[in-house]
Amino acid sequence: MIVVGLSSGTSVDGIDVAAADLEIDGDTVALTPLGHLEVPFAPELRATVLDALPPAATTLDAVARIDTDLGHAFAAAARRGIDELAGGAAELIASHGQTLYHWVEDGHVRGTLQLGQPAWIAEATGLPVVSDLRARDVAAGGHGAPLASVLDVLLLGERAAHAGGPVAALNLGGIANVTVVGPTGDTAAFDTGPANALLDAAVRAATGEHRDTDGARAARGTVDEHALALLRADPFYALRPPKSTGKELFDPGYVDRVLGEHDVTDRLDDLLATLVELTATTVADALRPYGVREVLVSGGGAHNPAVVAALRHHLAPARLAPIDDAGLPGDGKEALLFALLGFLTWHGVASTVPSCTGARAPTIAGRISPGAQPLRLPEPAPPPSRLRVTTTGTV
To answer: What EC numbers are recorded for this enzyme (predicted)?
Structure first.
């Protein structure tokens, strides 16, 4: 089955699109990536979404308009994925949408809201759409995150066995999250704290730019140890997994609230160097108890040399490598994840990992919007235990 996956992360940069040919072969899901691309958001839509994120106030009128406008944007991205990546032959769309709010209270997730009305995608493509992929796990007592854990666990199990110790997948979006897979199948996954969220907010507030390109400013700066200590004191870091967070906590005003009148906020390069160190040390602290041998990194932060250098230093002696080493394109991983989730849902397979999300039991993710034809679901498949990534015609 050819599935197009759509994703937009907490950085709200654009829509990641990937197409994959997926097949269940006994206890294995075979995934052949067919290509990936990024569709930037129109500047006005991106600004509207960012302006609606907590702690900003918003209205139901704004929410309805954002849901519709995101639906149109995801529909256009899906059409490009079908035409440019799948040769017009896709059979299913899986859309994560855009997270607007992740409701965490006393360490428990009470609800989560992703917008991007799937009806627009189904109408534009004629294909069924799997969406709202987090809510069922939340209803089962989980965090609805990190959803990447199902892909990571299936992909890295054999790698951990060969390594003779735990390996981890690290995604650096607006928020950093990890999945740890042990050689005997024990797993854990959770958010570790901010990755790009605070860095991008600092740059945007000071310069109007979207990001610190190539980490150049952070590389010129000097870490302010006092400011770093204040930032590292946030109670979130002491919470035991499973745990999740988002821009509801690490919002654009977070640094000013924590640091107050500390003058590092007036020295952009030093502030960025300090925030890079915050990301690297909190990731390393989170992974240290597991004794990981290898960390495979993906996400936008993997393109920031300052972040990668800091991670390599603090994670040592663990090896830091791109997720591409495991056969997945780093820039396409998130969208391929949602293609996999949609595929599993279509085949009646639970796609959440309770040891990673904290749910009471595995759940089948999402809801299905019919396309132009009536729904005809296949017989449920047995749960797979591993993922095999192939290239076209080659294992």
So the answer is: 2.7.1.170
Per CATH, the architecture of 2-144+330-389 is what?
A: 2-Layer Sandwich (3.30)
Rg, the chain, Cα only:
20
Q: Is the pLDDT of residue 130 over 50?
A: yes
Is there a binding annotation on residue 14? yes
User: Do 149-326 and 2-144+330-389 have the same topology in CATH?
Assistant: yes
357 in a labelled binding site: no
Domain boundaries, the chain: 2-144+330-389, 149-326
Residue 10 labeled ligand binder: yes
16 known member of a binding site: yes
Q: Is the peptide bond before 194 cis (omega within 30 degrees of 0)?
A: no
Identity at 131, one-letter amino acid code: S
State what percent of residues in the chain have pLDDT above 70.
99
pTM for this one?
Answer: 0.94
371 annotated as ligand-binding: no
Bond before 362 cis per omega within 30 degrees: no
Lowest mean pLDDT among 48-52, 191-195, 250-254, 389-393: 389-393
149-326 CATH fold: Nucleotidyltransferase; domain 5 (3.30.420)
What value does the mean pLDDT take over residues 213-222?
96
